[in-house]
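FAQ: What does a multi-protein file look like?

Like this. Sequence, then tokens, then the next protein.
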Amino acid sequence: MAMTMPFKLANSLDIDRFSIGDSVKFLLVLDERKTFATNFTLLGKGTIPSSVTDLDDEYRPLDIGEIFDDVSFLDFDSSIVSISDTDGKFRFISYIFTRCPMPNMCPAVIAKNQYLAQVFSENPDIEFILISFDYVYDTPTIIKSTYGGLLEANPNLKIYSSFGHLNDIFTLGGQSFVSFWGVDENDIGHTLRSVLLDPYRRLLQAYEGTDWHTEAAERDIRNIMQAYQ
């Protein structure tokens, strides 16, 4: 699976000398207020194949209108829950892990889902689902101890563990066009993407990274739900 991860660049950084396919190394700066990449060094020049053939398997990213496979995870009580359990509802699915050190990544996704869950708290036709792709560390107990209070305040917000459900998280993540790596080595990297599914598990809309605005997502959800009435 191709792996990409978005980074903000230092303001003074000029990357025009690099091309797609180049191999580079850089310094990732983390602090409490912002995260950015700087000090890029070219390691080697690369080329991009003229054509790429997608693998026709369960990990293939889906196009708008295609149907997600049914997969299963664990809730707070270690009970198995399947995506199909909420067929008949719209679902807004995002991916996180509890130990994410970058405040503008997983914590930002959680905050945006919390906002949307509160906005649609009176609407029984949609659920907001956060799934941890850290299938080693993020057990149901860890997730409950970390986010238990958040779910009590937002009944339509769900957070699931992929512990013991490796193929399920690779299937759903791959079909969502989300990549993650380094879980077994305890050195996690990942992309971010949220997807909106219709009551039949069809992909309706995707929101890249964390730069999407909650107001725009709210408007999209309202318009789409109204169109289904």
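And here is the next protein:
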Amino acid sequence: MTVDSSGFDVERQRVAREVFTLRMRIGVLRTAVFAVAVLLFLVLGGSVALRDATAGGSPWVSVVSYVTVLYLALWVADLPFSANGHRLDRRYGLSRQTWRGWALDDLKSFGLGFGFTLVAVEVLYGLLRATPAWWWLAAWLLALAVSFAAGIVAPVLLVRIFYKVTPLADADLEARLRALAQRAGIRVLGVYVVRMSAKSSRSNAALAGAGRTRRIVLSDTLLQSHTPDEIETILAHELAHQKHRDPAVGFAEFALTTLATLAVLGALLPWAVGPLGLDGVADPAGLPALMLLAAALGLLFGPAEAALSRRRETRADRAALELTGKPDAFASAMVKLHDANLSLARPPRLVELLAMSHRAAWRRVAGARAFRGRALK
């Protein structure tokens, strides 16, 4: 195996660059196709025609019918892109899942996504009918409440829908990771293993849940490919986020950007009523307009959110090194993770600045190797 100056496998990184380029092209095409399709659907009267075709006996029934048809149409239109993503993962050895298994997971995702979307849109249009001037503020408050609850419950429950989860059998490693969490001042319920190897070759570790439900979660692929020291440094990074209250900071950023997005939507939606032929702001035919505007604002806020995220991630890297005092293990863990997951270690600088939530891997490795501190006791 030939490695570069940072220790990354040259051949794996060549393939990673190939995968990166393919995914970027497909992602840009996917975004462009859907943006143009939804825009044409709006301006050519397709949304109004669908509203008329699905009109029911009450506004609630009309919204259900409209959203069901629209969601199903978008899901079907996205299937070729989703299938191509699975094909690429199988081609490059990142997925071990059969097409049947992928289809079942996609149907699970469809069911969860449709159920959540239907409830969210029904509530949204109920607010639009009840308080046309201030719906966006009420929607913001509800979004915060739902997001807060989901952040606690969803990581624990949703993973079990797609993967088998069992307690870690290695008592020595569990004790070691529990001791690390204790040094960081973080209480954990236990250490669990997600059986990812049946579907994927990717590796990962995380803290799931919050408060009394917080637990350490390791993929079985990580246990198979990394040493205990490397696993410890990866977990230390996640513990550092909790120590610095990064989830709370991220939630505050989400609250601000969501408020700004909904305020803009609240100001612009009345202006779209006439040009789009809507029967008022509570007309479900205006939903695609809200989708496009929200997506555009998401792109606008994206670079700033990525920059703030990179700042938090850099601090977590430093804290992980201070917590463990194992810079070599941290560096080798980063190398293994990126080579195994075919993540590009040296992405284009512009992509890193505009879109990446973490520093480029080679910078993280360089930072670890330059570390001269000692482990915290």
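Q: Is there any per-entry metadata?
A: Some entries carry free-text notes. For the entry above: The CA atoms of residues 140 and 259 lie 6 Å apart.
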